[in-house]
Amino acid sequence: MPQIAISVIIPVYKVKPEYLLDCLQSVTQQSLNDIEIILVDDGADEDVAAVMLKAASSDSRIKLIKQEHAGVSVARNNGIASASGKYVTFVDSDDHILPDNLAAAYDFSEQNGLDISIWGTYKCYPGHKDEYMPFTETIPLLSDDEKRDLTLKTMVGYVPVYGRKCTRCGSGACCAKLYLRSFLVSCDIRYPEGVVRSEDVNFNLRAYDKASRIGYLHRFFYCYRMHDDSATFCYRENGIRVFEDALRAMRSYLDEAGKSEIFYQVYYMRCVFFFLESMDMDYFNSANPNPLPIRLKMMKKKLDDAPFSDAVRLIDKHYLTFARRIPVLLMKHRMAASLALFYRVYKKILG
Prior knowledge:
about 350 residues, 9 strands
């Protein structure tokens, strides 16, 4: 029996039924028919579970796996373990892909003998969409320097160290990629279980490091739905912990792989930007019940802790634009109130 071309892994937990229906329709109606679709039910509610059951009963290519709620990393790892395709790809249950996505990615990977192929995405907002991609043209096989650039951008986005034509965007998400399954299995590349923020970044850093052949297809197939009820923006009490977990995993990767100083500099930048991003999830989230003075006091205390205190002490300002030096300076001197004011314009300044 011929091997299935692609296994599409879709973890499902908290998602609106209509979003999941859109997602499934976009996958089942791909121009490449030779696929299997692995739905991993990570403890979804009854309405969503009913959508999955109906889909599985109407399309023999859909395989339904159930697990007690354990998070997206466990769901994706279980999906990989259950996959039988030559390649695997991931789609989030609230996103969708364009009709020729899988056919084009499969052909590109086969023609160039790739371990990993990457393509562009759309970030879809109400009323408009933005292009998001790591490079500005198709690259059938990344050079060592381009692979380094991809890894650095995946860690933090734009830093002024690239000598090649590329964008400020990284490619850390698990989506919009096709992985050779035998490569993932032989290199034992798994999602870090217990890490709930940037788990896909940590997965891809290890995948990029082990991959011999990576290519970039400059086409836009993946549609990432941007909405306010995303887990990215939900309030978490002491939400900074999820960023600390992600940073510990990233630091472990750098130490294990014996990376050079530039990688550590980019890691320090990531520490700074994660601290700022924690304001969305915790310190200045509208659902945070603590009065502002308490939140500022908590921020000051956290700035004394590793890895944030180490990052602002060790970061080389020569790698930073002027705008990016501002939060480093404020964090270094524990100026929490000023950092809070800066945060109001942070996203616009840092682009």
